[in-house]
Specification:
Helix content: 25-40%
Order of helices and strands: EEEHEEHEH
Radius of gyration: 12 Å
Number of helices: 3
Structural class: alpha+beta
Largest sheet: 6 strands, mixed
Shape: globular
């Protein structure tokens, strides 16, 4: 299982956030997030939003550090990229 995380540089709600993604499947991503006790509500279209204070936890659990640009490339090449405004299938 390989999941990827970008640096916590995305501002929101008074914090900085990272994006946690898989280049294999959403199921793989959901399993990894569940192992970290990341709530499912943190899943947005094609990634989990992870607050900066959880970044090191994800890396210790095996997430590979990549740039934000690399996150987009990985999702796109895997066919898992879901842009805003596109309908997300139920259960994902």
């Amino acid at each position: 299982m390989t999941v990827y995380i970008d640096p916590p540089t995305w501002p929101g709600h008074g914090r900085l956030w990272s994006h946690l993604v898989s280049d294999v499947s959403y199921d793989e991503l959901h399993r990894f997030a569940a192992e970290l006790a990341v709530p499912r509500r943190a899943f947005e279209r094609d990634h989990y939003d992870l607050p900066a204070h959880r970044y090191a936890d994800a890396v210790r659990a095996g997430a590979v550090r990549v740039s934000s640009r690399e996150v987009v490339r990985l999702l796109t090449e895997a066919g898992l990229r879901r842009r805003k405004g596109r309908r997300t299938p139920p259960g994902h």
